[in-house]
């Protein structure tokens, strides 16, 4: 989402003097035939590919690609509280998240990979999401660190981070209530579009990000900062939940696949 | 079924930016043909027996046009004869980038079921997608993609089992290179002209063909008449560096050699650049977006005061410019420039008449558009003899630099000229008024008859059926949208109610009926005809507040004291039962007749009394009373020809109704703005820039009257005292001129603007609430108000300020156009009226003076016309033109009275 804002301000500074510039016609996000810019239909997700256990030294790690958005998640813990002890909770573990974007993740090189307002906000959202999913009460007085890095950004950064982090947490063997799966949906021509890419996100679509615990259908996080009439909200959430369930199927397969590989290695 | 493939694209947007996008290729895109058994499609578009009689292709076939064919020959594609066409996604996208109007028309055709146009998403089909090769231009790549898709189709149709019936695809292209390559690939390919000419059964299609450039239409001598237009990239650079200006080209109505370019500057400051002479106009057509270059200051000129009409190539135009007066005062000179390039054409089909060429066998003819600001167009047709004397539509195809006139092609005929229906059609088309009958989809949302008020309707409504409500309208009005009442309350105060037809109850947001009404924007009143915004069942029956029937209304009720001060305002949805529908004259009679003492009359008297106070207050605040001439025709009930005409009379009751409508509008505007500061639909009237008042000041000065224009109040006051003894009409004339100085009042969305002031009414806030039957803005305002009082629920588009803003732009446009259409209709009827009258002598007033003509107004007929001093066969009298007064003096005293007789020129 950070990209949207950036793009807009830049657009305002450099006005296009012509009415007929190619870009001024705008992009047709959904054609009459029902295809999106990249050839998907409205409800179709981008291709999801993932690997677990990519790093040996961390407790858990995962790499996930959703189309051209690529993220790396690493989990340390649960371990003793580090840094300020005052944050220690006596009944549950503290989850500490850090989100960052690689300087090479966008078309123009990023100056500041983490610590800016967007990243801080994103870290907070991730923290809230995983506090809802991880069974923190099992590890009182301890801390779980989740680090996520976007290697390449093409829309839906938050959701890709959540999906990658879920796999990393599972890889670390930390109990969760369920997979947390996230997906962004946008609303165009009265139709919800699942899993937006960057071109769609920046095309002035009101988008919504939703993190779901699919089995129980509980919503871990719902985030939207665009304007949308409330009549459309339900349809949009419905579409987001369907999309999340689609993601969870893929993740489940990845986990099973990984388990098989690992058990073959260690089983004998 | 999802094949993924990523590809890298570089685009330039200012700097170089690398854009990476995914591009999925699919297996589930079907061919859309009835014949095909392989594709698992649910519905098919293309027919099995795609037969059309052609001497080139005797077999059934589908057409695949390439981008340029679609762009240039859209008129041909629109013809009902052409069916079973495959539009490739590549073509559709290219058309979208190149021309928005053509794209819209193409989409309309695709949506039309009978046309059997199928859109094939070839860019995402696994077998038809191709990648751009190194060194290949984007255009070449697209051409190759089109050939690839054609090839796929021809093979696909062959392999499908029923290939026996010989179904083929035919590629249409005008590009020689493309055609050659396609032939090499073994495709069936024809030039568009070739193919259309081969359609033996439909020779009339040939006329629709646009003239293409490569055919070398040597229409005029190869002498280059115009300077070359600069390419877009140069224009862009020029505008950036400030050496060129971008603006909208506006041709002058009075002089075909003159035009202005309106340059929109930063914020408020915008300038007008004057253009003079064919060379400098450089093939720009009215409303085009052009780039202009300013001439050096010593070449600046003043707007000419000559009225010139293009009489054809007979005149030598250059000579004309030379004898333009050279000694203009420095002050009168305006920034002058020349057109260096066209940024965007806004060509549309134009209505007009064909001037049949002198030579009998010639197939090239000139076409004169009805709009004088459009140049004449040269077209090619073989049916000139039948088209002569008809009103026809013609589209411009291009304007080569060696041609005096643009080239175009015939689109369709509207009927014979001079006939009322044809002329009406012309003026509706020229003013872009949607006037087709309502479609079935629209009509399906009408309430079922017989209609009655149900208890559900009553839930949120107040029952006001017992009130003595009555309506006052012009005679013959069937769409009554307002009614009034006034009664004395027990506490001595007065209760005044304005009841407006509850149209938004019947037109629900988002359905076809609503969309149609939003598009039409307003009802258009022509002489003897009304183009409704909503279907007649609503406009003249269910929504019309007729007497003695129960009708749903939206009421605005005030409690006032006898000094017309508002103590309380209340809005409610209601049910009313009007006791009488009166005309202004009837209402006036009742008020004046002291013997009448019934409820209705008393109510009217109360209203009238309050209205007078309200009007006085309003005028004290500085509201303007302006004047424009409106005439009414008495129309023969059988022949529908005008038999008499009179200017509209204004009675006290007119202003009584108006006063309360204004009050209701202001009250509602305040309410919806309070409730929805971001998305209220309001109406504003910006104050005119001081320079607009020049004509008024000059006119007043000629009679030594002074007009102050510093504020609305000053203007109103000085207009009131501007009287000349022995010239009672002078004041009205000044008011007519003042009206012309004004800006247009416009609708806008409150979230998009900060200046709400209504100059003419001297009100800080204003909207339209009182005529929902004939104006769409009122429907929106009704919906907003209904939400504000909790009588209805909101919907997404109502709360979206951008959509609202787009809607108000459309409404403003429709409103403006409907006014023009109305005026044009009156003008046409005036001419019909005079056709049978011969020469009349009537008193007239000179409005403006030009060098070779004067503009004259005849108040009795509301007629304004140009009177030329020099006619074709008579030389101009020796006149001395004085720019300053302005005036024309005639040295010889015997030519004076000519000005009394306007020449109706058309």
TrEMBL record, chain A:
UniProt entry keywords in alphabetical sequence: Acetylation, Cytoplasm, Exosome, Nucleus, RNA-binding, rRNA processing
Gene3D superfamilies assigned: GHMP Kinase, N-terminal domain
UniProt subcellular location: Cytoplasm; Nucleus, Nucleolus; Nucleus, Nucleoplasm
Domain of life (superkingdom): Eukaryota
Membrane-spanning parts: none
GO molecular function: RNA binding
An individual GO BP term: poly(A)-dependent snoRNA 3'-end processing
Residues covered by the Exoribonuclease phosphorolytic domain: 44-175, 178-242
Annotated Gene Ontology cellular component terms: cytoplasmic exosome (RNase complex); nuclear exosome (RNase complex); nucleolus; nucleoplasm
Assembly and oligomerization: Component of the RNA exosome core complex (Exo-9), composed of EXOSC1, EXOSC2, EXOSC3, EXOSC4, EXOSC5, EXOSC6, EXOSC7, EXOSC8 and EXOSC9; within the complex interacts with EXOSC2, EXOSC7 and EXOSC9. The catalytically inactive RNA exosome core complex (Exo-9) associates with the catalytic subunit EXOSC10/RRP6. Exo-9 may associate with DIS3 to form the nucleolar exosome complex, or DIS3L to form the cytoplasmic exosome complex.
Family per similarity comment: Belongs to the RNase PH family.
PANTHER family: EXOSOME COMPLEX COMPONENT (PTHR11953), EXOSOME COMPLEX COMPONENT RRP41 (PTHR11953:SF0)
Descriptive protein name: Exosome complex component RRP41
Organism whose genome encodes this protein: Sparus aurata
Automatic annotation (TrEMBL), chain B:
Protein's name in the database: Protein DIS3 homolog
All residue ranges annotated as the PIN domain in the record: 61-180
Keyword Nucleotide-binding: no
Positions with biased composition (Acidic residues): 318-327
Annotated InterPro entries: Dis3_CSD2, NA-bd_OB-fold, PIN-like_dom_sf, PIN_dom, RNase_II/R, RNase_II/R_CS, RNR_Ribonuclease, Rrp44_CSD1
Domain of life: Eukaryota
Family note: Belongs to the RNR ribonuclease family.
PROSITE patterns in the record: RIBONUCLEASE_II (PS01175)
Pfam family, one: OB_Dis3
SMART domains for the chain: PINc, RNB
SUPFAM superfamilies attached to this UniProt entry: Nucleic acid-binding proteins, PIN domain-like
Compartment(s): Cytoplasm; Nucleus, Nucleolus
Region of interest: Disordered: 311-332, 886-906
Cofactor: Mg(2+)
UniProt-recorded Gene Ontology molecular function terms: 3'-5'-RNA exonuclease activity; endonuclease activity; RNA binding
GO annotation, cellular component aspect: cytoplasmic exosome (RNase complex); nuclear exosome (RNase complex); nucleolus
Organism: Sparus aurata
Example GO BP: nuclear mRNA surveillance of mRNA 3'-end processing
Keywords in alphabetical order: Cytoplasm, Endonuclease, Exonuclease, Exosome, Hydrolase, Nuclease, Nucleus, RNA-binding, rRNA processing
The RNB domain, residue ranges: 461-791
């Amino acid at each position: 989402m950070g990209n949207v804002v950036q793009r807009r301000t830049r657009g305002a500074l450099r006005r296009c003097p012509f009415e007929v510039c190619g870009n001024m016609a705008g992009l047709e996000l959904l054609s009459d035939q029902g295809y999106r810019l990249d050839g998907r239909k409205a409800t179709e997700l981008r291709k999801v590919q993932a690997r677990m256990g990519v790093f040996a030294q961390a407790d858990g790690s995962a790499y996930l690609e959703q189309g051209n958005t690529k993220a790396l998640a690493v989990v340390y813990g649960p371990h003793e509280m580090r840094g300020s002890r005052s944050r220690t909770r006596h009944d549950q573990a503290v989850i500490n998240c850090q989100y960052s974007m690689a300087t090479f993740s966008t078309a123009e090189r990023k100056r500041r990979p983490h610590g800016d307002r967007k990243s801080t906000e994103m870290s907070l959202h991730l923290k809230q999401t995983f506090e809802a999913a991880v069974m923190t009460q099992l590890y009182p007085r301890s801390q779980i660190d989740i680090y996520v890095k976007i290697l390449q950004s093409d829309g839906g950064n938050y959701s890709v981070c959540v999906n990658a982090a879920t796999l990393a947490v599972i890889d670390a063997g930390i109990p969760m209530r369920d997979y947390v799966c996230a997906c962004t949906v946008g609303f165009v021509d009265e139709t919800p579009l699942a899993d937006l890419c960057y071109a769609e996100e920046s095309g002035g679509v009101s988008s919504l990000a939703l993190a779901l615990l699919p089995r129980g259908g509980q919503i871990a996080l719902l985030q939207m900062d665009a304007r949308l009439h409330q009549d459309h909200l339900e349809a949009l959430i419905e579409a987001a939940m369907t999309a999340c369930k689609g993601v969870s199927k893929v993740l489940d397969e990845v986990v099973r696949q990984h388990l098989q590989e690992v058990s073959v290695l260690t089983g004998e | 079924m999802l094949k993924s493939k990523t590809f890298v694209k570089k685009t330039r947007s200012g700097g170089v930016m690398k854009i990476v996008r995914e591009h999925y290729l699919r297996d589930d895109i079907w061919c859309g043909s009835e014949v095909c058994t392989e594709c698992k499609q649910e519905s098919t578009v293309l027919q099995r027996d795609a037969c059309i009689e052609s001497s080139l292709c005797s077999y059934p076939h589908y057409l695949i046009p390439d981008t340029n064919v679609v762009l240039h020959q859209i008129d041909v594609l629109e013809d009902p004869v052409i069916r079973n066409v495959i539009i490739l996604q590549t073509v559709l996208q290219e058309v979208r980038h190149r021309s928005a109007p053509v794209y819209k028309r193409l989409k309309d055709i695709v949506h039309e079921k009978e046309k059997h146009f199928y859109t094939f998403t070839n860019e995402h089909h696994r077998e038809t997608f191709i990648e751009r090769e190194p060194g290949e231009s984007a255009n070449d790549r697209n051409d190759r993609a089109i050939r690839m898709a054609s090839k796929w189709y021809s093979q696909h149709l062959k392999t499908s089992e029923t290939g026996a019936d010989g179904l083929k695809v035919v590629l249409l292209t005008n590009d020689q290179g493309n055609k050659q390559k396609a032939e090499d690939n073994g495709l069936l390919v024809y030039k568009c002209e070739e193919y259309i000419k081969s359609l033996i059964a439909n020779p009339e299609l040939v006329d629709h063909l646009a003239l293409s450039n490569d055919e070398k239409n040597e229409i005029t001598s190869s002498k280059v008449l115009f300077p070359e237009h600069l390419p877009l990239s140069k224009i862009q650079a020029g505008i950036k560096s400030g050496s060129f200006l971008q603006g909208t080209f506006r041709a002058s109505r009075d002089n075909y050699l003159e035009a202005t370019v309106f340059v929109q500057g930063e914020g408020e400051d915008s300038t007008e650049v004057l253009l003079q002479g064919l060379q400098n106009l450089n093939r720009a057509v009215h409303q085009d977006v052009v780039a202009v270059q300013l001439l050096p200051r010593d070449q600046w000129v003043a707007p000419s005061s000559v009225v010139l009409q293009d009489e054809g190539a007979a005149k030598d135009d250059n000579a004309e410019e030379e004898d333009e007066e050279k000694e203009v005062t420095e002050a009168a000179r305006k920034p002058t420039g020349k057109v260096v390039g066209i940024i965007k054409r806004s060509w549309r089909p134009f209505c007009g008449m064909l001037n049949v060429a002198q030579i009998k066998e010639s197939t090239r003819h000139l076409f004169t558009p009805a709009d004088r600001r459009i140049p004449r167009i040269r077209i090619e047709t073989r049916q000139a003899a039948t088209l002569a004397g008809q009103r026809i539509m013609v589209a411009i195809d291009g304007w080569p630099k060696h041609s005096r006139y643009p080239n175009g092609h015939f689109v369709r005929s509207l009927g014979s000229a001079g006939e009322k229906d044809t002329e009406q059609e012309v003026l509706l088309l020229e003013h872009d008024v949607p006037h087709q009958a309502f479609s079935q989809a629209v009509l399906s949302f009408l309430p079922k008859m017989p209609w009655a008020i149900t208890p559900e309707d009553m839930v949120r409504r107040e029952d006001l059926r017992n009130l003595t409500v009555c309506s006052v309208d012009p005679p013959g009005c069937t769409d009554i949208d307002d009614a009034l009442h006034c009664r004395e309350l027990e506490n001595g105060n007065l209760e005044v109610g304005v009841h407006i037809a509850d149209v938004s109850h019947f037109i629900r947001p988002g359905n076809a009926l609503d969309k149609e009404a939003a598009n039409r924007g307003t009802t258009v009143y022509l002489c003897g005809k009304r183009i409704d915004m909503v279907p007649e069942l609503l406009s003249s029956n269910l929504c019309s507040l007729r007497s003695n029937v129960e009708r749903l209304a939206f009421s605005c009720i005030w409690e006032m004291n006898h000094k017309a001060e508002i103590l309380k305002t209340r809005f409610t949805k209601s049910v009313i039962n009007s006791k009488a529908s009166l005309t202004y004259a009837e209402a006036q009679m009742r008020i004046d007749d002291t013997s009448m003492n019934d409820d209705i009359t008393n109510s009217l008297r109360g209203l009238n009394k309050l209205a007078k106070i309200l009007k006085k207050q309003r005028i004290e605040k500085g509201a303007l009373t302006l004047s424009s001439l409106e005439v009414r025709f008495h129309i023969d009930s059988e022949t529908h020809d005008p038999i008499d005409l009179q200017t509209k009379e204004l009675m006290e009751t007119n202003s009584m109704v108006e006063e309360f409508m204004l009050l209701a509008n202001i009250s509602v505007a305040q309410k919806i703005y309070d409730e929805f500061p971001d998305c209220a639909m309001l109406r504003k009237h910006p104050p005119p820039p001081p320079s607009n008042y020049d004509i008024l000041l000059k006119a007043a000065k000629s009679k030594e009257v002074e007009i102050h224009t510093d504020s609305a109040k000053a203007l109103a006051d000085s207009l009131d005292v501007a009287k000349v003894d022995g010239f009672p009409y002078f004041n009205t004339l000044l008011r007519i001129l003042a009206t012309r100085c004004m800006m247009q009042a416009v609708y806008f969305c409150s979230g998009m603007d900060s200046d709400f002031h209504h100059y003419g009414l001297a009100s800080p806030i204003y909207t339209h609430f009182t005529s929902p039957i004939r104006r769409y803005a009122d429907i929106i305002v009704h919906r907003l108000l209904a939400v504000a009082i909790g009588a209805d629920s909101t919907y997404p588009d109502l709360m979206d300020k951008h959509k609202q803003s787009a809607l108000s732009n459309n409404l403003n446009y429709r409103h403006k156009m409907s006014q023009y259409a109305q005026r044009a209709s009156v003008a046409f009827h005036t001419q019909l009226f005079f056709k049978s009258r011969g020469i009349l002598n009537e008193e007239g007033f000179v409005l403006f003076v030009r060098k070779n003509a004067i503009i004259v107004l005849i108040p009795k007929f509301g007629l304004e016309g140009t009177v030329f001093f020099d006619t074709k066969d008579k030389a101009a009298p020796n006149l001395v033109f004085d720019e300053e007064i302005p005036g024309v003096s005639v040295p010889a005293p015997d030519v004076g009275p000519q000005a009394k007789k306007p020449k109706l020129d058309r």
